[in-house]
Amino acid sequence: xxxxxxxxxxxxxxxxxxxxxxxxxxxxxxxxxxxxxxxxxxxxxxxxxxxxxxxxxxxxxxxxxxxxxxxxxxxxxxxxxxxxxxxxxxxxxxxxxxxxxxxxxxxxxxxxxxxxxxxxxxxxxxxxxxxxxxxxxxxxxxxxxxxxxxxxxxxxxxxxxxxxxxxxxxxxxxxxxxxxxxxxxxxxxxxxxxxxxxxxxxxxxxxxxxxxxxxxxxxxxxxxxxxxxxxxxxxxxxxxxxxxxxxxxxxxxxxxxxxxxxxxxxxxxxxxxxxxxxxxxxxxxxxxxxxxxxxxxxxxxxxxxxxxxxxxxxxxxxxxxxxxxxxxxxxxxxxxxxxxxxxxxxxxxxxxxxxxxxxxxxxxxxxxxxxxxxxxxxxxxxxxxxxxxxxxxxxxxxxxxxxxxxxxxxxxxxxxxxxxxxxxxxxxxxxxxxxxxxxxxxxxxxxxxxxxxxxxxxxxxxxxxxxxxxxxxxxxxxxxxxxxxxxxxxxxxxxxxxxxxxxxxxxxxxxxxxxxxxxxxxxxxxxxxxxxxxxxxxxxxxxxxxxxxxxxxxxxxxxxxxxxxxxxxxxxxxxxxxxxxxxxxxxxxxxxxxxxxxxxxxxxxxxxxxxxxxxxxxxxxxxxxxxxxxxxxxxxxxxxxxxxxxxxxxxxxxxxxxxxxxxxxxxxxxxxxxxxxxxxxxxxxxxxxxxxxxxxxxxxxxxxxxxxxxxxxxxxxxxxxxxxxxxxxxxxxxxxxxxxxxxxxxxxxxxxxxxxxxxxxxxxxxxxxxxxxxxxxxxxxxxxxxxxxxxxxxxxxxxxxxxxxxxxxxxxxxxxxxxxxxxxxxxxxxxxxxxxxxxxxxxxxxxxxxxxxxxxxxxxxxxxxxxxxxxxxxxxxxxxxxxxxxxxxxxxxxxxxxxxxxxxxxxxxxxxxxxxxxxxxxxxxxxxxxxxxxxxxxxxxxx
Length: 943
Fold this sequence. Notes:
By secondary structure, this protein is mainly alpha-helical. Helices cover about 70% and strands about 0% of the residues. It is elongated, with a radius of gyration of 58 Å. The termini are far apart.
């Protein structure tokens, strides 16, 4: 509140110190003021404030009367209790003082009573301990029943400690002490058994392997490979929790097996409490191998049960997919076993790091675990891969499978007959010395751990007791190689940090290189030998069922199909065993080289007619580079090999262009085969139609075989599509050298197939020359008798062509058949027209006979080609010109133009003059001169 002098006083409602200051200020103001009036004013002001405060206080009391009453009553009660408590405390103090005086007087008696109380208390404690010790067996059984091993261990350890300590003198507990000591000594075996059960039998709920049965385990491998796991972000092995220093506790209200990791920690902690950690580690190490064998036996039983067949029947079937299923189950369980061993070792290291145990004590590690796992798998593989039997047969692979130049023809060559061995007169196998020696050798082998085929190891593991899921065979490796390699890579990754090496990888490598490749080579050798060695073995064709299965319409050689089947098997092996793709490809190339040589040898045997390697005319021409290049350049040949993306019909020429090209071919044939000196010998043509069928079968087979080889070669090399994207191949990468060798062999087979087709094309034409030259040179066309039948050689040609048509139509595709017989009419017409120069003379009967020859051939060729051969009509018209006078012929040429060539007209005129010898000799020269002038004039007019 502000005064007249402008001073500000604290409010009367302030708290204690402010109120005191305010009163002192008022007193000081009243005492120091000299003016009475001022004091009166100050007094009046204070009185006014007092009245206001009193009024305000009265109002507050009135408003809070009830609260004020309660506070006052409470204060009175508290004050009363305080006074009463002071009196009681004073009384207690007096009583304590009196007690102290009394106790001081009876100190000796109190000491005696205290000692007696301590003695009684000790006796009661001992009696309680005895009662607790008596309950230990029951509690121990309950803990073991509920698998609370840590509580059980603590209980038995403490009980034995008490019996050997404070209660050692209690004779009544002697039997109980013996019992508990025995159970303590046996408890670590229970703990080791529990650890083994957790490792090998119990599987965490979140890590249970899926054993879904499937029949789609094909060569592509329906299994979780290592690469797929890496791509999907999955770990190869379950993660082991890092080591922590937390105290291991056991909850009696829960099932300890619900958490396997914690349960293992409890078991190890129990061993630590028992001071049996080294014994426990040794017990776990000893049980690794038998327990893994038991897993194999259980997995085998499960596969047999899932197959819905009896074990004996399943073991006799060659179904490696069941072995693959067994291995996938075993691999998954072995991964979990390794994971559990990691957890056990982590806990063993934890108790060792506590400093209680000596760090250098003997303990197993993960190297031992992986070593046992590999050993069990190796023994399992030895049994299913039939290593012992196949090794005993000594079928070894060649030493240089990886060299493309490996020659396997030695396996297909004829073997020298073995000299008969002389029978032994005496044998000492059953003598005492021999029997004792053999027994010693067998015993030595039984203890030789380095023996690759030691059967005693199987007996030690108990693997002979598990049920077989398929028949043992070396070829079982094809179904399991990829998942086996993935598992081996997992093992190598797991033991990489331990500087360990995979013994399983060494076994698989030795098996494949030393046994499997040799077995494959031996099987391929026997199969191809059976198909290629023997009389006429390369002439046999497959049956119709095999044709339908292969999707071909014409017969194929059995040898080609068998070789292709073996190559297909090797191609599948390249996919099944990608690591050895180069070896299998080199084996394929060597097989192809040998079969190529065999085919060339058989081809030479069919086209060779003399011991001096003299060949048929058609074979020599088909091999000639110039003639072969010319024939391959003709449209009729190019139609057979249309380019990629080009229609066959686009390669066709017009009829006039085709006639021109055919005339070139015919001229080449006539210039080489039609000469006045000699005729074609019979031994230089193929007279047996069945041999033509064989050559046609060779062509079809080799062309089909070449197509399959080409597809295989394209699959081996990475190709790019039209967008430039690399296409993935189903085959693994192979060496460039082997791929080049394969492409070269493919071209060799293609060339031989084309040579066979060219030979057939030429052989039919050589037959026409052979018979038609005899028609002109050996027959009489100037006889007086009207011979109505065609020439005998014409009939032979028709018969020959019909026989070839029958065999080739069955062996060749329609387009190939058309290529061989197309253009024969033009060829026959050209041959007969060119043969006019070899006729000494001819009369009307001879002209009629020649026309009958042409008509007979035309009918036969029409039946073969199913089209009218118009070129033979022109040849008949050519011979019918001999009916006319030569001057009339020249006049017709001058008026209508030349229908034939100058040479053909000259030969016609010359034959006419030879047939009419009574005319003027100079007349021939005049007519030839007039013919030349007419032809030249006609050519100039056309120009």
